[in-house]
Specification:
The chain is α/β, with parallel strands linked by helices and 257 residues long. The chain is built from two helices and 16 strands. Strand 8 and strand 9 form a beta hairpin. It is elongated, with a radius of gyration of 32 Å. The N and C termini lie far apart (119 Å). The relative contact order is 0.05.
Length: 257
């Protein structure tokens, strides 16, 4: 049972109506609290001097939460309005956000400031859990796409033989198709949505040679396909050039006659 241990209405220290309740080590404040200030304003808790630690007596930074979270979240932010979490550099104008999570234009996660966002494990966009370091369920648009291809990050480098390239190339089966996407409806039930408005051309991973697919046969390695095409076209061009030389030689012999 909670017991009121202090009730304050003062025009000096807090300038608010305050009640404190305690039970089993808990402290409940019914009102507003200012730490380092006598004017907390419209906020429930204002810390103007020092740091605030929850679960720790040695806060690292102005605000530090420490604990396991038990069976729930370590921290839970719920706002019935549009805004969630907003972090920006002091003195900068709106639009110079360092981190922003809100629902102003629909659910969004924003990182600004020209810095670097670091994710230690994997990131899934539109899919959970991701099977790769970065997995996107949907389209990706960029100005350029670069693969790490330096000799410094490779071993066992060997030439791709003409036979290897031709066998894998001839095993490819180009198809056209529509993508299907999974969405959660308002009832929380997963639905399959067919994207019929856009036609794609490519390959089916399960029907493609292992040389160009991921280990789980769910994805295509486009870099490997480019290598196959390059080797095959090079061989075809060499054959065409050799045939042209033979034709020219035959024509020269016929002209001499």
């Amino acid at each position: 049972m909670k017991k009121k241990i202090l009730s304050v209405f003062a025009a000096g220290v807090f300038a608010i109506s305050l009640s404190l309740f305690a039970a089993d080590g808990d402290l409940i404040v019914d009102g507003k609290v200012g730490i380092g200030t006598t004017e907390p304003g419209s906020t429930k808790l204002a810390v103007m001097d020092g740091s605030l630690g929850i679960g720790t007596t040695s806060p690292w930074g102005l605000f530090h939460v420490y604990g396991s979270g038990g069976s729930g979240f370590l921290a839970n932010i719920e706002n019935t309005g549009l805004y969630g979490l907003y972090v920006k550099t002091a003195g900068t104008s709106y639009g110079h956000d360092l981190l922003r999570v809100d629902d102003y234009y629909g659910p969004r996660f924003w990182v600004f400031g020209g810095g670097t966002a670091y994710i230690a494990n994997s990131l899934g966009i539109g899919i959970m859990p991701p099977n790769e370091k970065l997995q996107v369920m949907g389209n990706v648009r960029a100005n350029a796409y670069y693969l790490n291809s330096s000799r410094e990050c490779k071993v066992n480098i060997a030439d791709l033989s003409s036979q290897e390239a031709l066998v894998s190339f001839m095993a490819l089966k180009p198809v056209k198709y529509n993508f299907k996407e999974r969405e959660i409806n308002e009832l929380g039930v997963e639905e399959i949505i067919i994207e019929e408005s856009r036609l794609y051309m490519g390959f089916i991973a399960e029907d493609s040679p292992d040389f160009v697919t991921s280990s789980d046969k769910k994805s295509i390695n486009l870099s490997n396909i480019v290598a196959l095409l390059t080797k095959t076209v090079q061989e075809q061009q060499a054959t065409i050039q050799e045939q042209e030389k033979r034709i020219q030689a035959l024509e020269a012999k016929r002209t001499k006659k």
